[in-house]
Amino acid sequence: MNKALFLDRDGILNLDKGYVYKWDDLVWMEEIFEIIKMANDRGYKVIILTNQSGIHRGMYTREDVHLLHKQMEEHLTKKGLHIDDWFYCAEMDSIDRKPRPGMLLSAQKKHNIDLEKSFMVGDKATDIFETDGSFKRPMTFLIRGNYDLTHPDIGSGVKVFENHAEVLEELKKRL
């Protein structure tokens, strides 16, 4: 089975400015390049899991998200970095919307991933996947930013960090 580094998009790959869907509005989080490189070098799949409620809210379209993800992937490729897959959820009441596990379990099935040997990096309590006990969620690292990280599961397979650099140091020990 494969191991994966799952990454939220807004707040992790790029600065979360609220509903980013245009290349010109995208500001990369600089440390993410080193995080992705390390995962690539150590044989981890790198998979993006992102809620995109702006589609449901009529702020932008699925085509806008696909175009931005294509542009982001091209930028990463030019840096010698590889993203294995991108998953997003537009709907508000869907099994795929984080913290529900739909995207995670779809990625697991598609890429034959051992979730217990994988990691999730996010910046919101919704990046802690719900589980009914039928699967063990990946170790989750949350980065303090714009969102309240109060959640009953923090401390149970979840670690909170102040910034990307701290996550990078922790991943160096674990990947």
TrEMBL record:
Primary place of residence?
cytoplasm
MF-aspect GO terms: hydrolase activity
Q: Where in the cell is it found?
A: Cytoplasm
Gene3D superfamilies, sorted: HAD superfamily/HAD-like
User: Cofactors per UniProt?
Assistant: Mg(2+)
For this UniProt record, the keywords arranged alphabetically read as follows: Carbohydrate metabolism, Cytoplasm, Hydrolase, Metal-binding
Q: What does the record note on quaternary structure?
A: Monomer.
Family label: Belongs to the GmhB family.
- Protein name (record): D,D-heptose 1,7-bisphosphate phosphatase
Per the UniProt entry, what species is this protein from, by scientific name? Answer: Bacteriovorax antarcticus
Its lineage reads: Bacteria, Pseudomonadati, Bdellovibrionota, Bacteriovoracia, Bacteriovoracales
